[in-house]
Amino acid sequence: MILADKTPNQTPHLPLGDQRTSPWYGKSIVSVKQFSRDDLTYIFEVAHEMREMVERIGTFDLLKGKILANLFYEPSTRTASSFTAAMERLGGSVIPINEVKYSSVAKGESLPDTVRSLECYSDVVVLRHPEIGASALAAKYARKPVINGGDGAGEHPTQALLDLFTIIEEHGQPDGLTITMLGDLKHGRTVHSLSRLLSLYDVRLNYVSPEILRMSSEIIKEIDEKGIPQSEYNELEEPLPETDVLYVTRVQKERFDDPEEYEKVKGAYVITPATLESAKEAMVLMHPLPRVGEISMELDDDPRAAYFRQMEYGMYVRMALLAMVLGKA
Amino acid sequence: MILADKTPNQTPHLPLGDQRTSPWYGKSIVSVKQFSRDDLTYIFEVAHEMREMVERIGTFDLLKGKILANLFYEPSTRTASSFTAAMERLGGSVIPINEVKYSSVAKGESLPDTVRSLECYSDVVVLRHPEIGASALAAKYARKPVINGGDGAGEHPTQALLDLFTIIEEHGQPDGLTITMLGDLKHGRTVHSLSRLLSLYDVRLNYVSPEILRMSSEIIKEIDEKGIPQSEYNELEEPLPETDVLYVTRVQKERFDDPEEYEKVKGAYVITPATLESAKEAMVLMHPLPRVGEISMELDDDPRAAYFRQMEYGMYVRMALLAMVLGKA
Amino acid sequence: MILADKTPNQTPHLPLGDQRTSPWYGKSIVSVKQFSRDDLTYIFEVAHEMREMVERIGTFDLLKGKILANLFYEPSTRTASSFTAAMERLGGSVIPINEVKYSSVAKGESLPDTVRSLECYSDVVVLRHPEIGASALAAKYARKPVINGGDGAGEHPTQALLDLFTIIEEHGQPDGLTITMLGDLKHGRTVHSLSRLLSLYDVRLNYVSPEILRMSSEIIKEIDEKGIPQSEYNELEEPLPETDVLYVTRVQKERFDDPEEYEKVKGAYVITPATLESAKEAMVLMHPLPRVGEISMELDDDPRAAYFRQMEYGMYVRMALLAMVLGKA
Question: Which of A69, A298, C188, C252 has its Cα between 20 and 30 A from that of A17?
């Protein structure tokens, strides 16, 4: 046996060298509501350092020896891949778990039991689940930090963080910016969470959508109470020239009772080179992806098109969060 | 090219530095029947050192550069994740193979051919397969060690080892203990294998089950020949006070021809805080998981509840086995 | 934060230390048509060094910190595992993506968008896709190198390279050899690509197949123009004694309109110990695997049986290609 001598210590299950004094150490990331503006500033500082480290040296061993259980109850290639890449670029390892539905869960195991089993093998758990509140439930029972990778119609906090980080990396900071959100603002989980985060800054928000897909009044009220100016439009034409960030989401045909209604409006929510003629040169065009025609591929080489950079920023944000909850940032 | 100069050596496919003199080096782990009491002592010594190393430093590079092919013909989140974590905590890498059924095998490839192909890429193969004897067949043809990760109604030797290791870690050692097994003892692969392993020690075994789910007479006979005292019960009440380890398994409704029969007995096989009132303070409550109501969640915080620790011990046992068959322990 | 100080550099997304002057750096591998004989010589020199390094020390950290996105739109256990092992043996990491069909793509995302998203997280993409031209399309849009892991009835260039590398490792070099291909030469993607590569050398090619599964006239014409002697046969008997490499492929029943026709010919395409009695002692017997009865298992211990070694050579070729396109060879 080439291992070290037996020792009688019975320390808790924490490796040495962890910065256990960090306020983020061991914390779960469940909702955007848990972040103050100072929290965001810190997360994005760490994420920015991650970006610079990756650009300079590719990967580094900050989380060497740490294991992420990537627990996906429904497929999400992009989110799963992004967390996997984040962990691997920090020198950590990943247990990919994609077939939960075929396995013990099919035998009737509860979510808390599944999470408490998997945390025995890992240091942090990312959970993607189709039901609202799944991550909060998991975090309640888990001894290790749980990161919400999307819980159905609930939240997808790392998406909201990467959206805001994109705005910061592209524009320097959000204060003073006019952000225009376009498309299905009623059902869009991403625009709801992003609006909430932006309301911590000095911004102006425009909402452009068909009548039946307006931003929910609950969110408008919540944001209004923070003193953030908000305006609603049917067409992009009017708010576009003053827009610093145009955030596009998909308008799905299935949302309309009357298919003719959909046909009438859909053209207004497709961005083409012609659309952007009246936009600022420094405007940033975002989309959570996947897109299905909402933004013309002809725009992909336009320097304003930030949606693929947005993907990459997502990896840096997830690197930051993993490092933070594991006590290494 | 930054690699070293060409060299004419034609050594076999073994990296330098392996401890090829170890009796475990290159061995397959197919059945609990292959272990003597001395073997078990050695495995659990190594597993205990693994536990201490993980608790102190998280991971280490004992198997750096080694590759595990994790070949699962049927899903088993827990077993697959445990082997993945075991390999990664030792610095090794994993090839996860979960879609065998959709791939070459669907084209009619034999199990020996699949295993002989995958061992070309890896240093050790873990095989989960729905058919009895699959691992023995694979081990017969493979040049690299094969570890049985469960072969249908056959064996699941690493589960049996982790069950015994749990008893040892929780109680110090098994001699003198009374182990009571509860539930479906007829079909339960885990209780069969664990009984066999325990019969190498000086223990007393109690079996508590409905009439139709009695421990198989073949196993009772086998264990009796080793001089181990065994007793059968319909109810837990009588043997509980003298029990040092209570091993609970699920009683499945489908096992009963008459649903009324099931309704009558099922309550007797659910463990609650009230059940444990007459149990020893130092008793250890085990379950192979997943549970579906056999043990009340109210007991999860009871120090006797060892089932999640049991999961974690499983990782240490698998770390030990991987290190041993790869000549590194 | 234990990371380094912020630095203002905005270098492109390339780690330091890359050998960016290599002609292979950043290149995609889409088709065998892109290789000259000198290219092949170089690839196989690197692959041979990979073999020696693996045999001597198992793995090494040439691609430490690099990430491969292993993007499989259809399952292929062998190809996916081989690339995973290749990357891991070089110290790199893998993002396994097997469920594309259930995920964003199901939402209608285009292949270029999927690839451009995943390359944000990775340094190189391996793409397996059921449609001809998928890899060429992906390579056109990607900023990172794309390696074709098979595009339907199109090409599978790394299979062709590993076939040729097998011939070179087993025979020293291809010049002067007689290679006999047997089976379904009409539909066999592997024999088409291998013939094209072999036409760069001084070889003699024999084609043995049923009438209706003859080598395509287009390929025969293409190879004839290079001055390579080619002969067609219905039976293996005549060309076997002069054969240095026998490359066997499967004859599928479904290719025949008349099942009786299939029954008549199938026996002629099964290799047994009796078949090989008239073969050279130094002949090499190859098969792309999986086999379904085309080669008798009795031959597996015959030193001429190279089909499992062929699997292993495939890993070395893929290690070489990964190192080359990442600027490390």
Answer: A69
